[in-house]
């Protein structure tokens, strides 16, 4: 467990909580560590969610399955990302998505009871844990609003521009690696891969961006902002 604590101690969930206190939280909550393989499902749509997780290794995709069978990636999760934190507080507690492992991966699962039941000692770090969770949930709402802004763009170029600008804002650099591959990005933007590739190619020809494999360089940020508007 000591190795696990070192992996999660800098997570936002444990801000202002020391390693000994984290150990107490994990022990008190009866947290468990689980490993997954490529395309293994962590939970499926309509599953009841009673634990939240933190990605320790690898990557995961939250996937929405349409009636037609089309898969749409709602978001991708990487090391340090949380999942299930909103569902465990929901009155329904049933997942609207599948959570699928993208390669070999590992998570720590924390039962939701630790967030709603104060221990007899009413430890200060327990209060801090709950406060941190409220901050995380608030940030999640902001993130979902940002995604809706991207998907509400009138054109595909507009969606791509908004997406690239969001990464630029996060990384504070004009050159960065895309966090998703081409197929995952197409699903995220709710378009076909050929349509996405065509628009990216057009934007490169227009001198707005430069693409090399998974790397993107914003060459004309003002033009990109115009497309986003």
Structure write-up:
The chain contains 8 helices and 11 strands. The protein is α+β, with helices and mostly antiparallel strands and 229 residues long. It folds into 2 domains: 2-145, Jelly Rolls, CATH 2.60.120.10; 153-228, Winged helix-like DNA-binding domain superfamily/Winged helix DNA-binding domain (Arc Repressor Mutant, subunit A, Orthogonal Bundle), CATH 1.10.10.10. Helix 4 packs antiparallel against helix 5 (156-171) and helix 6 crosses helix 7 (193-205). The longest helix has 28 residues, at 124-151. The N and C termini lie far apart (48 Å). The model has no long low-confidence stretch (mean pLDDT 91).
Descriptors:
229 residues, alpha+beta, Jelly Rolls, Arc Repressor Mutant, subunit A, 4-stranded antiparallel β-sheet, 8 helices, 11 strands, 41% helix, 23% strand
Question: Summary?
Answer:
The chain has 229 residues and is α+β, with helices and mostly antiparallel strands. It has 2 domains: 2-145, Sandwich (Jelly Rolls); 153-228, Arc Repressor Mutant, subunit A (Orthogonal Bundle), CATH 1.10.10.10. Helix content is 41%, strand content 23%.
Strand order of the largest sheet: 1-8-3-6
Radius of gyration: 20 Å
Q: Distance between the terminal alpha carbons, to the nearest Å?
A: 48 Å
Give the number of DSSP strands: 11
Major sheet summary line: 4 strands, antiparallel
CATH homologous superfamily annotation of the largest domain: Jelly Rolls
| Helix count from the secondary structure assignment | 8
Outline: elongated
Name the structural class.
alpha+beta
List the uncertain runs.
none
Return the CATH class of the largest domain. Mainly Beta
Total of domains: 2
CATH level-3 fold name of the largest domain: Jelly Rolls
């Amino acid at each position: 467990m000591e190795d696990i604590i070192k992996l999660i101690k800098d997570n936002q969930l444990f801000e202002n909580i020391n390693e000994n206190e984290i150990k107490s939280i994990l022990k008190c909550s009866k947290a468990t560590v689980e490993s997954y393989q490529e395309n293994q499902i962590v939970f499926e749509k309509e599953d009841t969610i009673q634990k939240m997780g933190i990605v320790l290794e690898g990557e995961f995709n939250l996937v929405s399955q349409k009636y037609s069978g089309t898969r749409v990636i709602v978001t991708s999760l990487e090391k340090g990302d949380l999942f299930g934190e909103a569902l465990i507080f929901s009155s329904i507690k049933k997942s609207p998505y599948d959570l699928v492992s993208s390669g070999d991966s590992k998570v720590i699962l924390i039962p939701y009871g630790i967030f709603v039941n104060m221990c007899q000692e009413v430890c200060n770090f327990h209060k801090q844990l709950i406060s941190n969770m409220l901050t995380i949930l608030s940030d999640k709402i902001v993130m979902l609003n940002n995604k809706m802004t991207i998907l509400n763009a009138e054109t595909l170029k507009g969606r791509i521009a908004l997406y690239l600008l969001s990464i630029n804002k996060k990384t504070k650099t004009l050159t960065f690696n895309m966090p998703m591959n081409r197929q995952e990005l197409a699903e995220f933007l709710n378009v076909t891969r050929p349509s996405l590739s065509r628009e990216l190619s057009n934007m490169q020809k227009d001198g707005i961006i430069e693409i090399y494999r998974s790397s993107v360089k914003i060459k004309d940020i003002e033009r990109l902002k115009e497309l986003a508007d």
